[in-house]
Amino acid sequence: MDMIKSGLQKYRGRLREKAIARAKTRILLAGRTAADFSADDLEIVVQEEEGKIKGEIKEKGVLALLALLGLSWFG
Amino acid sequence: MFKNIFRLTALGFLWNRYRLMIVSTSVLFLYFWVVSALHSDFVEFTHLDNDTEHLGMSFLVKWLAFILGFALYITINSRDRKSRQAKTQGKSGTNIQHDQLYSDYPEQQSGDGEKDPFDVIRNKDKLRSAADFVVENNKAVKRKT
User: Fold this and answer.
1) How far is CA B44 from CA B37, B41, B63, in A?
2) Is B3 on the interface with A (CB under 8 A)?
3) Which of A27, A44, A47, A66 has its Cβ near the most Cβ atoms within 10 Å?
4) Do A71 and B117 count as a contact with CB atoms less than 8 A apart?
5) Residue B101 has pLDDT above 50, yes or no
6) pTM of the full structure
């Protein structure tokens, strides 16, 4: 159980960091800084980015599964 | 050709990373199989010999052997995992516990000593969306009125 818990925490931490990095880039591209936003606004931006990353991971997972099945079917 | 390279790379990665787990799991299943075979042989022998005096005890011994093997398997794997964790912590040079939430990402500070505005978000368990904020505001307004 400990292993699963720590693995999940690590995964969530990495995901959050990635979302924060993307949010920072998005803010920079908009020509503003993080200090211009309130904590709530930043939370919304990071939440959106996290959702996008989760969606991408799911998409990639399906593609990887299809690729694996394809390899075993036609290999 | 690329398919084979991909397969070999994936196999190599899996083998390097999960070698102990793969070997120990195989040994565990082999052990289960040997214990079961021995027990079924013993049961057959007792039926042939018409001596069922120790039959009940044999089942007890069989299950004890299963439990013992499984406990050993868990101990070996958890010990290996702990040693690997200690190694990674030693490499990073920190004494931070893995149980702490987001332990790999301690609070960051910007160059001029100011706190990172994302620190609060970094340590939050669940983030709220714009819709969540609207719902919360509506609830707060309703409570006031």
Assistant:
1) 11, 5, 18
2) yes
3) A47
4) no
5) no
6) 0.48
Closest CB to B127 among A9, A24, A50: A50
Residue B64 has pLDDT above 90, yes or no: yes
pLDDT tens by residue, B110-140: 455 567 888 888 888 888 888 988 898 898 8
Q: How many residues appear in chain B? A: 145
Q: Which residues of B touch A24 (CB under 8 A)?
A: 118
Task: Write out the DSSP string of chain B.
Answer: -HHHHHHHHHHHHHHHHHHHHHHHHHHHHHHHHHHHHHHHHHHHHHHHHT--TTHHHHHHHHHHHHHHHHHHHHHHHHHHHHHHHHHHHHHHT----TTSTTTTSPPPB-TTSPBPTTHHHHT-SS---HHHHHHHHHHHHHHH-
For residues B72 and B67, give the distance between their C-alpha atoms in angstroms, rounded to a whole number.
Answer: 9
ipTM: 0.72
Chain B stretch 125-144, residues whose beta carbon is closer than 8 A to a beta carbon of chain A:
127-130, 133
| pLDDT tens sequence across B43-52 | 999 999 888 8
- Predicted local distance difference test score (pLDDT) of residue A75: 46
Distance from CA of B142 to the nearest CA of A (A): 21
Contact A45, A37 (CB under 8 A): yes
* Nearest-5° Cα angle at B70, B66 to B75: 150
**Looking at CA atoms only, how far is residue A31 from chain B in angstroms?**
17
